[in-house]
Amino acid sequence: MFKASILIALMAFATAGVQADKKIVCYFGSWSVYRPGLGNFQVSDIDPRLCTHIIYTFTGITTNGDVKILDPWADLPDGGGKNGYGKFTELRHLSAGTKAMIAIGGWNEGSSKYSQVASDSTLRGRFVQNVVKFLKKYDFDGFDVDWEYPNQRGGYPSDKENFVALLRDLRREFDKYGYILGVAAAAAEGSASQSYIIPEISKYVDFISLMAYDFNGSWNKSVGINAPLYASTKESPGLRKLNVDAAVRYWLSEGAPAEKLMLGVPSYGRSFTLANANDNGIGALATGPGIAGPYTREQGSLGYNEICVNLRGGGWTVVREPDQRVPYAFKGNQWVGYDDVTSILEKAKYINSMGLGGAMMWSVETDDFRGTCGSKYPLLTALNSVLRGNAVVPDPNPSEPTGSTGSTGSTGSTSASTEPAPPSDSVCVQEGYVRNPQDCSTFHYCQKVDDKYLVSTFHCPAGLVFDPSIIACNYKNKVSGC
User: Fold this and answer.
1) How far apart are CA 306 and CA 6, in angstroms?
2) Of residues 90, 109, 148, 419, which has the active-site annotation?
3) Which tens digit of pLDDT belongs to each residue from 179-219?
4) Which of 56, 63, 144, 481 is the most exposed place for a label (fewest CB within 10 A)?
């Protein structure tokens, strides 16, 4: 059902003998099942083939050390509930190798209860046992700890050591059952240095998801981009630490193994209301958060699926910040800094260049999962195209020979680039993927911005050509016109 949007299938890697060594960790915000209209997102809307790990958010904690189910009607089947947990773990049947995990914590949970449990060895031990029972009961593959944040928001300085103890105790018990242990962590030095003993927490976890976003937001008095890749030359020395590159380099300098770091990329932007509509550059004064979107309904934040619809509606000016390598857009007094396909591709290449373990997306339900603005899941697909080598058709039919109709296997990987694109007026007539008319092995992703097309270029592996009928690379003898 995702035929028109997916370029990646983990199963095809196995067929091709290609090792997909980078992780793509996909968080799912379970409250999105209540969103209205085209923003309504159900567990069945997740495509697990685009993720090595899917994480259901959130559960909570009690001061007794219990794991608390926060929304029984959405999470469980009892009394006619939606059975979110069950449907989520069943997604593994669609993608052999994808792991289904559950996260505890999040911003709304705060810090004080976690601080209390982690500080008491008896409570900590009880909590660890309860987590194991929970994972067994609901058939999850692992557990992600999103304590926001040790030694902050009601916590204590001793939280830093107690967080290590908590992870150590979880690791010891998890090793008996083969469970995965992850953490979501503040990325920027200013917050991370308060909360973590980085070499110690790194010992006990399988991966660390760096929340490399929210570097700027409506809590500021001036506008700034949500997740800039690099610092701007116009920023003060203090602000130059509020970007992806500075955060990654800090974690590495503090002893985090590169292969355990998952770089968080946002599928949402941070929005502002400008004090003066004519003053709209980086650092312009803001009076407060931007207007809430129709789906997420939260002032100061817009999902990419809301942003792309706004841009298609016209009247917005899009600027790609040259130093920070990410776009922002404004219309009247509304301003938003966000990530798009081009900036995600560049961040994925950055992950490879730094030797990181992979990427994390927060969160899948605000990508353009319906394909309202073009192809489905454009941001997540962009990550896959660089990090996992872009195999071919999803839904390969194992009963048919590799390369036969309906099951196109391949070897090698598809590369993505932002090299000079062909003239958009000769290639792009609508949003989505299109084959290069002069070279069947090359194809482009066309993204419409202010009545113009932004073009990203991809290349099929040697011996393969792009097949528009399946939106993937295929054997040449299976593709008409080549």
Assistant:
1) 21
2) 148
3) 999 999 999 999 999 999 999 999 999 999 999 999 999 99
4) 481
- Asked if residue 357 lies in contact with residue 22, where contact means CB atoms within 8 angstroms, the answer is yes
Amino acid at 228: P
Cβ–Cβ contacts within 10 Å for residue 38, how many?
A: 15
Looking at residue 307, its amino acid is: I
Reading the block at residue 228, the tokens are 């800039």
As to burial, measured by CB atoms within 10 angstroms (0-12 exposed, 13-18 middle, 19+ buried), residue 401 is exposed
Q: Which of 127, 112, 108 is nearest to 64 (CA)?
A: 127
Active site residue 148: yes
Question: Looking at this protein, which amino acid is placed at residue 11?
Answer: M
pTM of the model: 0.79
| Burial letters 167-202, b for 16+ CB under 10 A, else e | bebbbeebeeeebbbbbbbbbbbebbebbbebebbb
5 by Cβ neighbours in 10 Å (0-12 / 13-18 / 19+) ranks as buried
pLDDT over 60 (residue 310): yes
Query: What is residue 157's DSSP assignment?
Result: T
Q: How many residues does the chain have?
A: 482
The DSSP bridge pattern shows strands 99-105 and 67-68 to be unpaired
Tell whether the model's pLDDT for residue 11 goes beyond 90. no
For residue 389, give the nearest of 348, 421, 422 by alpha carbon.
348
One-letter amino acid for residue 404 of the chain: S
